[in-house]
Specification:
- By secondary structure, the protein is α/β, with parallel strands linked by helices.
- It has a single domain, classed as Nucleoside phosphorylase domain (Rossmann fold, 3-Layer(aba) Sandwich).
- 25% of the residues lie in helices and 32% in strands.
- It has 6 helices and 12 strands.
- The strands form 2 sheets. A 5-stranded mixed barrel has the order 5-11-10-6-12.
Length: 224
């Protein structure tokens, strides 16, 4: 067995429960060990939100090393051109609602000169995944731009989702941690709903979760 593990990260168990159920060994409440095709896999459940993702991932990376990191989760789409159940590869991220509401409208930390939009890991205020991966499964997944938000209402009022494709509550925090540590990573998500859609009958979380788990297993088999 390859003893240099791949780290699979998810905010909740729900999103990757099928993988967790496959011959796993609990290391702790939030860290799980398994293997696929003799490739050692560790699974980290961080909790929801940028604070939980940042703390859990940073704590783990301070004591262990991994050859590759994958964030797996479900996501909302800003565009109905991306069908429910679709798989997406989030290749850029931003903290879209991190800033203040002022008399001039919503202003980001970069607008306020509280952060440099071109200091690593940012380029023009955006984090771009630099990882090159030779993986046929990943290559066939649609590339999208991600937006990490803590309030749907805030992002709609501030109009900060322009030219972005999908939203999550942890993606940018994941990007930030991996890029600051200069580790290879990808963020793979499955679309469960459309952002702002109040009619929950149009959501399909079970389909998104099933597609996500199947795709992640295929990716891990290809990597191994």
């Amino acid at each position: 067995m390859d003893t240099n593990p791949i780290l699979l990260v998810s905010a909740t168990r729900l999103e990757i429960q099928a993988i967790i159920d496959n011959n796993t060994l609990e290391i702790s409440d939030d860290l799980i060990s398994t293997s696929i095709n003799n490739q050692s896999i560790e699974i980290l459940i961080t909790g929801v939100g940028i604070h939980a993702m940042t703390y859990s991932l940073t704590r783990l990376l301070s004591s262990k090393s991994y050859k590759f990191i994958i964030l797996a989760g479900i996501s909302g789409s800003f565009s109905e051109l991306i069908p429910i159940g679709s798989m997406v590869n989030v290749m850029s991220e931003s903290f879209s609602d991190l800033g203040i509401n002022s008399d001039n409208g919503f202003q980001t930390l970069f607008d306020l000169d509280l952060a440099n939009p071109n200091k690593w890991p940012y380029a023009n205020g955006i984090m771009e995944n630099y990882t090159l991966i030779n993986n046929k499964i990943v290559e066939n997944i649609k590339i999208v731009k991600g937006s990490t938000i803590q309030s749907i209402q805030a992002i709609k009022e501030n109009n900060t989702a322009i030219n972005l494709d999908v939203e999550s509550m942890e993606g940018a925090a994941f990007f930030y941690c991996c890029m600051m540590e200069k580790l290879p990573f990808i963020q793979i998500r499955s679309i469960s709903n459309y952002v702002g859609e109040r009619d929950k009958s149009r959501w399909n979380i079970p389909l998104a979760v099933d597609n996500l788990n199947n795709t992640i297993v295929d990716i891990l088999k290809e990597i191994s």
